[in-house]
Design a protein that fits this description.
The protein is α+β, with helices and mostly antiparallel strands. The chain is 28% helix and 35% strand. The protein has helices at 14-26, 47-58, 109-122, 142-152, 231-237, 239-244, 250-256, 302-320, 333-338, 342-356; strands at residues 2-9, 36-42, 63-69, 72-74, 77-78, 84-91, 95-102, 128-135, 158-161, 174-176, 179-181, 185-192, 196-201, 205-206, 211-217, 220-224, 227-228, 259-262, 269-272, 274-277, 283-285, 294-299, 326-332, 362-367, 370-373, 386-389, 393-398. Residues 377-382 have low confidence and may be disordered. Helix 1 runs parallel beside helix 2 and helix 8 runs parallel beside helix 10. The termini are close together.
C-alpha cells in the first residue's frame, strides 16, 4: 500500500517554507507514518538549511532524497517563484526503500555508477523494482552513470533528472538523507510489492534529412557528414543566422533547434540540447553522442510539448494497470522556457492530470537532463534500456 501527500511553499525563509510544505504534505497522509521524503528545492535557498530543517521535522530515520532545481512542480503546476516542494510517501511493510550516493562522480562516472548500483542493491533485502537518480546537472555524465548502474542493477528501470540551479549554471546540489552534495549522484531503490511505470516523450519533430556524425569527442560533435557540425544549421537557417547562433544563450539555442540523435541500441530518437558552438564549428551538447549515429535538426512547438506530456502520461498509466497513488515528474527546463507564461507552462501539468486524475499527488522539478528507460523496455527485464535525455518529460507513477 502507498499513501502520499505533497506540500509546496514559496516563502523566502527556508525554515518557514520547509515547515509549511511538510505540514501540508502530512495533512494528506491521514496519520500514516512517513517512509520516504522527496525534496526538490530552488537553489536560491540555503541548501544545508533546507535539508537540516526537513530532517528535524521528519526525523533522521526517514529516507530523504532529492536535489536543487531549475524550477519546481506540484499538482498546482509550475511554481510561480522559487519554492520548496516535498512529497511524503508512506509504504506498507511489503515495500522497501534504500538509498545510496557517490561523490566525485565527474571522475570515472561509469565506475561510480557501478558502485552506486551495488550499494543500492545491498540497501534492501528484496529484488530491486525501480531506481530513481539525481545527478549533478553540470559536472556529471549521466549516460556513463546509467551504464554503470546497468552493470550492477541489471534489468532495473532507472528514472530521474539532473539537478539544476535556476538557470545560473554555477553549482547544483544532490540530497541523500542528511548529506548535501555536489559533483555527485544520489539515488534510491524501491523493492517488494511495488507497482510502477514510466512514461517518456519529447514531442519534437525533424526538419532535416538524417546525416551521419563522423567525428566526436564525448559530448562534442565536431563533424557531420565529414563537415563542420555547424553546417547542419547553416544549411537550414542560412550562414548569417547560423553565425548568430554562436552568440545566443543555451536556452535560446536549445529551445529553437535541438538535435535529434538516433540511439543505436534502440533506434529511438533522443534529443540533445546544443550548449554552444566554437570557432571551428564544433557543437557541444548536453549529453553523450555516438560516432556513426544519425542526427537531424529538430523543432518543437508549445502544442507538441503539451501533446508529449499527455502521451507520456497515457503511456505510464496504461503500463501501470492500476490506480496511481503518486506521480513524480522530471521535466527539462528548456520545455518550461518554451512557454510564454506560467499559465501556458501549466498546460503540460494539466494534460498529465487529465489522464492520471487531478487528485493524484504530483511532485517534480525542471531538470538539466532527464533519465528514463525508453520504448517500454522498463517492463521487460531482459530488454531494460536506461538512457539519458534532453528536452524530454519523464513521468513515474507508483501504484
Amino acid at each position: 500500500m502507498i499513501i502520499s501527500g505533497v506540500g509546496i511553499s514559496a516563502g523566502a525563509d527556508s525554515e518557514v517554507a520547509v515547515a509549511q510544505a511538510i505540514n501540508d504534505a502530512q495533512s494528506q497522509l491521514n496519520g500514516a507514518d512517513v517512509s520516504l521524503a522527496l525534496l526538490f528545492a530552488s537553489s536560491t535557498y540555503d541548501q544545508e538549511s533546507v535539508v537540516k530543517r526537513t530532517q528535524e521535522h521528519l526525523g533522521e530515520d526517514i529516507t530523504l532524497f532529492g536535489g536543487s532545481t531549475a524550477g519546481e512542480i506540484s499538482q498546482h503546476g509550475p511554481s510561480m517563484s522559487p519554492s520548496i516542494v516535498i512529497m511524503l510517501l508512506s509504504f506498507s511493510d511489503d515495500i522497501e526503500v534504500g538509498i545510496a550516493f557517490e561523490t566525485g562522480a565527474e571522475e570515472e562516472p561509469e565506475q561510480k555508477g557501478t558502485a552506486l548500483g551495488t550499494a543500492l542493491s545491498q540497501s534492501i533485502s528484496t529484488d530491486p523494482k525501480l531506481a530513481l537518480m539525481i545527478a549533478d546537472g553540470l559536472k556529471v555524465n549521466p549516460s556513463a552513470i546509467l551504464r554503470g548502474l546497468q552493470e550492477s542493477l541489471p534489468g532495473t528501470p532507472v528514472a530521474g533528472g539532473s539537478a539544476g540551479d535556476d538557470g545560473k549554471y554555477v553549482q547544483t546540489f544532490q540530497y541523500a538523507n542528511d548529506k548535501v552534495l555536489s559533483s555527485a549522484v544520489s539515488a534510491i531503490v524501491l523493492g517488494g510489492a511495488l507497482k510502477h511505470s514510466v512514461g517518456v516523450r519529447h514531442g519534437w519533430n525533424p526538419i532535416s534529412a538524417p546525416k551521419k556524425i563522423t567525428k566526436i569527442s564525448g559530448t562534442v560533435i565536431h563533424e557531420i557528414d565529414e563537415k563542420p557540425a555547424i553546417e547542419l544549421y547553416e544549411e537550414f537557417l542560412g550562414k548569417e543566422k547560423a553565425a548568430m547562433l554562436k552568440e545566443v544563450t543555451l536556452a535560446e539555442l536549445a529551445l529553437s533547434y535541438p538535435l535529434g540523435v538516433t540511439d543505436k541500441s534502440s533506434g529511438e530518437m533522443l534529443l540533445r540540447a546544443p550548449f554552444y558552438v566554437d570557432a571551428s564549428g564544433s557543437i557541444t551538447c548536453g549529453g553523450e553522442v555516438t560516432e556513426g549515429s544519425e542526427v537531424q535538426l529538430m523543432i518543437g512547438t508549445r502544442e507538441s510539448a503539451v501533446d508529449a506530456a499527455r502521451l507520456s502520461a497515457e503511456q505510464a498509466l496504461e503500463s501501470l494497470g492500476t490506480e496511481p497513488k503518486a506521480a513524480i515528474i522530471f521535466n527539462c527546463h528548456v520545455r518550461n522556457t518554451l512557454f510564454a507564461s506560467r499559465d501556458e507552462a501549466k498546460k503540460e501539468i494539466d494534460a498529465i492530470q487529465e489522464v492520471i486524475g487531478k487528485d493524484v499527488p504530483l511532485a517534480g522539478f525542471y531538470t538539466y537532463a532527464e533519465q528514463a528507460p525508453i520504448n517500454n523496455t522498463n517492463y521487460n527485464v531482459k530488454m531494460c534500456n536506461n538512457l539519458n535525455h534532453n528536452e524530454t518529460i519523464v513521468i513515474v507513477l507508483l501504484g
